[in-house]
Amino acid sequence: MVEWLQTPAGKYLLAWERERLDAAVADIFGYHALQLGLPQLDALHTNRMLNRWLALDQWGQVKQGDSRPVALLTDFCALPFASSSLDLVVLPHTLEFSADPHATLREVERVLVPEGRVVICGMNPASLWGLKQRRSRLAQRLGGGASFLPDGGELIGHWRLRDWLGLLSFEVEAAEFGCYRPALRSQQWLQHFAWMDQAGARWWPIFGAAYFLVAVKRVRGMRLLGPAWKAVPARAASGVSVAHSVTEYLKPENEA
What we know:
CATH superfamily: Vaccinia Virus protein VP39
Number of strands: 7
Number of helices: 7
Strand order of the largest sheet: 3-2-1-4-5-7-6
Radius of gyration: 29 Å
Strand content: 15-25%
Order of helices and strands: HEEEEHEHHEHHEH
CATH class: Alpha Beta
Helix content: 25-40%
CATH architecture: 3-Layer(aba) Sandwich
């Protein structure tokens, strides 16, 4: 994945994702944020939380001269955080290269606080890039060719991922597709098809090469408490005048 991100297609993808991430995480507030994997993309760059960590699952990902400190080296399926302790977790292509994406997503749900958010970037198998990848893998099985996308990853469809999130009580808050240019290795040809980004977003939006979504962790039965309202004292029932009661009692019988 690291080497592929240096290719024209990889840089094109990173530019699109960085723009979406910078806009999304800037307005997510809390105290603790975590990015899982892909140190080449600073997903928490614009976030203003006090504590922000980058976690990797292997030291090999740091060999490209990334200047940011690595806070954690851990198994993404067993994060060293207490339950309901993080406000934001970002997964930039983390699920695609995870040995067990279901377990990783369950672990993210565990460490997030109620109403916490997970931000996910993924490659769309229902796209020109996904089609190119399937053809490349078929050619590899037949004895030749190189895959267009990084090896070792398993593309997860957008709607399939939404189903997984729904089972874990996540609610998708925002979703977007992007990168509609064909699967080309040349910077010149990618630039030649730049017009397809606007056309694709308008005419075939769900067929972008990449997708980006933000989901909120919902907890059933939980209700956020608002400001306490000042109790209004109940009005006392109006009583009968004492003087009027005595007068009525002393009336002569013939006037009764």
